[in-house]
Amino acid sequence: MPTLVIGPGAVGLYVATALLRAGEAVVLWARPRSAAALQQRGLQVRFPAHTVTFGPQQVRVVTSPGEALRAGPYRAAFLTVKTYHLPALLPALQQAAPAWPVLVDLLNGVTSTATLQAALGPQAVLPGTVTTPVQRLAPGVVVVEKPRGVGLAQHPQTPALQALLQRGGVTVRVYANPAALKWTKLLTNLLGSATAALLDWPPARIYAHGGLFALEMAQLREALAVMRALDLPVVALPGVPSRALAWGVTHLPRALLQPILRYKVGRGRGEKMPSLHQDLHRGDGQTEIDALQGAVAATARRLGLSAPTNALLARLVREVAAGQIPAERFRHRPQALLAAWQEAHG
Ligand SMILES: NC(=O)c1ccc[n+]([C@@H]2O[C@H](COP(=O)([O-])OP(=O)(O)OC[C@H]3O[C@@H](n4cnc5c(N)ncnc54)[C@H](OP(=O)(O)O)[C@@H]3O)[C@@H](O)[C@H]2O)c1
């Protein structure tokens, strides 16, 4: 029985490669441009020490829910689109859902699982996360920067999927608390993401700047306060020192914390700029901010907490993305961003 990967971009091809290496048949559900490239050239995944290629005859590509249904039934489906692709894709997912027993939600942020569960049913969705940074160079060609792994929530299908991905060379950890998994991943996605997008600076430079470091810590502490209010523990993610991060942000003095995080945040990303930076600078108005800082701010509001730093970053990224304020207002201008932050705090 094949496995379906919906959205064969960076993460989708990373997952597809693991499945193919495990000896599974894989069907890729792509949009027309990527579908054409995959059908002509197959896929190429560059790992730090080697490159894996699969020719066009080794994967089947479909482009519509009808085709996806006909190529099934599947062992499972992995969803690897961006959060902003989800609303348009949802009706097609509902149409094709009879073809798979479970949809693995690998999207970043904390909004996708609820959206998918509302559309498909609570047991039909398996929340997960990817901690390996992957970059797409062209349709069908991706670079795996630092292999780390995948987290999957407990579900009747999880043991089989865990075994499969591990056979394909991916470290998989299983989590009893899906919300803790998604929120912990969100915590790591906040690091140098919105600030890098707004300033057009790499995260290591942001963590070397005194004022920006304070802003970064404020957004993390707000997110940790929301997690505490939701009674969600910070969990250990595959290959990511997420618990040490949360402990350090809460307990370490700045003089110790800043050099550690500056080193870790710079080194942790490889060559890849944060996705929010790439989203904002693509210029099509679409970013994942609503599922990240925006979700922290919205959840804080719902809980009667205050998260002004996340609210500000979310608003500014939204406004720059929508062209309501010029990108030049913050580009390479940390003082402008810090002034807006001070103003947001009254
Ligand atoms: N990249 C990373 O390092 C990384 C790591 C962990 C988690 N994540 C998260 O994983 C998710 C995916 O990120 P990514 O970096 O893999 O994004 P990406 O490279 O942009 O891939 C998204 C893919 O979804 C496809 N897609 C969009 N709408 C579709 C539709 N209606 N039907 C079929 N395919 C569709 C896109 O098609 P086109 O090819 O036509 O654009 C693209 O191939 C995001 O939530 C991201 O935050 C990413």
Helix-strand layout with pairing:
Elements: E1 3-6, H1 10-21, E2 26-29, H2 32-41, E3 43-46, E4 51-54, E5 60-62, H3 65-70, E6 77-79, H4 86-96, E7 103-105, H5 112-120, E8 125-130, E9 134-138, E10 141-144, E11 150-153, H6 158-167, E12 172-175, H7 178-190, H8 194-199, H9 203-207, H10 210-229, H11 242-251, H12 254-268, H13 275-282, H14 293-303, H15 308-321, H16 334-344
Helix pairs in contact: 1-6, 4-5, 7-10, 10-14, 14-15
**Strand order across the largest sheet:** 5-2-1-6-7-8-11-12
State which percent range the strand residues make up: 5-15%
Mean pLDDT: 96
Poorly predicted runs: none
Count up the domains: 2
| Largest sheet data | 8 strands, mixed
- Please tell me what the overall shape is: globular
What is the count of helical runs?
A: 16
Order of helices and strands: EHEHEEEHEHEHEEEEHEHHHHHHHHHH
Proportion of helical residues: 40-55%
Give the total of beta strands: 12
CATH architecture of the largest domain: 3-Layer(aba) Sandwich
Distance between the termini: 58 Å
Q: Briefly, what CATH class of the largest domain?
A: Alpha Beta
Radius of gyration from the CA trace? 20 Å
Q: What ligands does this structure carry? A: NADP nicotinamide-adenine-dinucleotide phosphate
Provide the CATH topology of the largest domain: Rossmann fold
CATH homologous superfamily identity of the largest domain: NAD(P)-binding Rossmann-like Domain
Secondary-structure class: alpha/beta
